[in-house]
Amino acid sequence: MKVLLFLALFLFWSQNISAYIDPCSGSMIIQLLIAALVGGGFAIKVFWVKIKDFLVKIYKFIFRKK
């Protein structure tokens, strides 16, 4: 929590900086986001059976009949 507060204060109280972001940086950020989404989707696909079994166990534990 302290880290988030520090980052928020750091971002809001920073001074104006004259910096240049070249076009390659923008395309690299877009590629990074696409790769993260594809990688996450692939990880879910590979581990789907384990994820599903885990969620079923939780559901059965929470809603078990007494």
List keywords for this structure.
flat, about 70 residues
Describe this structure in words.
- This protein is mostly helical.
- It has a domain at 27-66.
- It is 76% helix and 0% strand.
- It is built from three helices and no strands.
- The chain has helices spanning 2-12, 23-46, 48-62.
- The longest helix is centred in the middle third of the chain and has 24 residues, at 23-46.
In short:
The protein is mainly α. 76% of the residues lie in helices and 0% in strands.
CA-CA gap between termini = 39 Å
Low-confidence blocks of residues: none
Oligomer status:
single chain
Instruction: List how many beta strands DSSP finds.
Output: 0
Portion in beta strands: under 5%
Main sheet specs: none
The total of helices stands at 3
Helix content: over 70%
Cα-based radius of gyration, to the nearest Å: 21 Å
- Average per-residue pLDDT, rounded, comes to 85
By helix and strand content, what is the structural category?
Answer: mainly alpha
Shape: flat
What order do the SSEs take from the amino end to the carboxyl end, as H and E?
HHH
